[in-house]
Amino acid sequence: HIVPFNTTLSLHRLSLSHHKPEIMAERLVLKGTMCAHTDMVTAIATPIDNSDIIVTSSRDKSIILWKLTKDDKSYGVAQRRLTGHSHFVEDVVLSSDGQFALSGSWDGELRLWDLATGVSTRRFVGHTKDVLSVAFSTDNRQIVSASRDRTIKLWNTLGECKYTISDGEGHKEWVSCVRFSPNTLVPTIVSASWDHTVKVWN
Questions:
Q1: What is the pLDDT, as a whole number, of residue 51?
Q2: What are the b/e assignments for 127-160, b being 16+ CB within 10 Å?
Q3: Strand 161-165 vs strand 175-180: parallel, antiparallel, or unpaired?
Q4: Pairing mode, if any, of strands 9-14 and 131-136?
Q5: 126-159: per-residue pLDDT in tens?
Q6: WD repeats: which residues (predicted)?
Q7: Hey, how many other C-beta atoms are within 10 angstroms of the C-beta on 71?
């Protein structure tokens, strides 16, 4: 089904019982534009508790914590800029409690940030090339990262690398994305790569 271009976008869903598209009540309308980064924005992280904050990363080497005001004139304001990376910040995620941000950068490092203070509380050093993707486990006790060095690294929150999956058993090209499964009973990591494969680890 082709949705005609308009200033608003109607969401369509397929009714499995009638096999016909249904128009949902929701409509996507631009509510505001937030400007503070000075280069390409690379990632957005939102908290699971629906609080009025978001975090963004950018090629301007910074991370910005935004407060959503939902005001017509300024839908959100930059509350804090987190700096410390020496190259593009490629990815950013939030802990499940929304208190910490985790970033990965082309400087080869991960950083853990206390959002209340804006301070980088931990550096994760071990990758030899750009870090492309980072993730928290559901309980926030473990961290996983993926890199252009073709490795996946599992860390604790103290910044200690506990395990490395290298190209011998892992991917043959850049590892572009990595995520934890939300299932805490069977801890699982899923990775994707430029080698055209998705791999599952536990």
A1: 82
A2: beebbbbbbbbeeeebbbbbbbbbbbbbbebebe
A3: unpaired
A4: unpaired
A5: 999 999 999 999 999 999 999 999 999 999 999 9
A6: 34-76, 82-123, 124-156, 168-202
A7: 11
- 52 has pLDDT over 60: yes
pTM, two decimal places: 0.84
Radius of gyration of the chain (CA): 19
What's the pLDDT tens digit per position in 171-190? 999 999 999 998 877 889 99
Instruction: State which CATH number among 2.102.10.10, 2.40.30.20, 2.130.10.10, 3.40.50.150 fits the domain covering 33-201.
Output: 2.130.10.10
User: What is the rounded distance in angstroms from the CA atom of residue 47 to the CA atom of residue 162?
Assistant: 27
| Res 19: pLDDT | 53
Please tell me the distance from the alpha carbon of residue 101 to that of residue 95, in angstroms, as a whole number.
6
Alpha-carbon span 112 to 135, nearest angstrom: 11
Query: How many whole angstroms from its chain centre is CA 40?
Result: 15
